[in-house]
Design brief:
Layout lengths: L5 H10 L5 E2 L2 H5 L4 E5 L1 H16 L15 E5 L1 H7 L6
Parallel strand pairs: 1-2
Antiparallel strand pairs: 2-3
Length: 89
Amino acid sequence: MVESNRARITAFALTNRLPLMGEFKPMAEAGGLMSYGPNQVAMWERTAFYVDKILKGASPANLPVEQPAKFELTVNLKAARALSPLPTL
């Protein structure tokens, strides 16, 4: 629900001068201050790996559970400048 409404959420945060942090990069790209979380593309690639194994006959119960291995920090400098109390040069 948050991802589908990220434009409204970021607009509200910027209008009210609130720093907004999200879990995935699109939140920072939409106008949030920053995001930190697992790399979505890397997670999708691992999902494809599991789908391939299952389609080839592996039992899902026998496949190991993985945690994300790649994380990314994204800082939106435009939003940081908008939130800054100091005048920009």
